[in-house]
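Troubleshooting: if your tokenizer reports a length mismatch, compare against these two reference records.
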Amino acid sequence: MEKSFTIQQVSMITGLSGHTLRYYEKIGLLKGVDRNEHGYRQYSETDISWIHFLIRLRITGMTVNDMKSFSDLRSQGESTITARRELLELHQRKVLDEMKALAENLEKIEEKIGHYKKLEGQN
């Protein structure tokens, strides 16, 4: 049997607050979270893996609406694999574009640091 985790444990494991976990459940990003006999949420290891993936999407700039679309497709099963892949590929392109822009900006910052180091060396 798969181990279950309380909302506090999942909060510690994922770094998300209990409020965020409840919000994700409310808007449908987390579906099918079990409850114990007292009505308390019981998260599975599968739930935690999914939460970690949602965190990765969020950190890389995916909107909550797009995360919701992905989650909805996921809950519809195997017939949505192509749509899920396409959504992730679109997000991947956005992330790669952002990484390219960051690298270009970092290069300019490094040039300016080099410029200031040269000026300091003249004194």
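Reference record two:
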Amino acid sequence: MGRVYLFLAAFFGFTGVALGAFAAHGLRGRLTAAHLEVFQTGVHYQQIHALALLAVVLLAARGTSRLLAATGLCFSLGIVLFSGSLYLMTLAGLKLGLVTPLGGVLFLIGWACLGLLAWRRTA
């Protein structure tokens, strides 16, 4: 499990930096200020959760559990759905309805799983 989430953390971190640079240098002037802000929100959440996946990897070194696996899965799918939908909405003009909020809910579930894991490990 740790190896997969380490790869995903590296992938999402790398692509987050690349997309942030693309927004700052390639999209400025091509997108409205509002669309650029939405794109940057996707980058921001992607970067935060790439780092959160690193925490999952570090915790996995101490022992794996279903809660920890669920945390990593929720963070990973959250990045794809939340950030990915914001990128598609701004670049392709797609209206994705509930995809973005679903990604946000997955982030919340991931953080709740992490909190529950902490509660169980310290109790």
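Descriptive notes for reference record two:
- Residues 2-122 form one domain.
- The chain has four helices and no strands.
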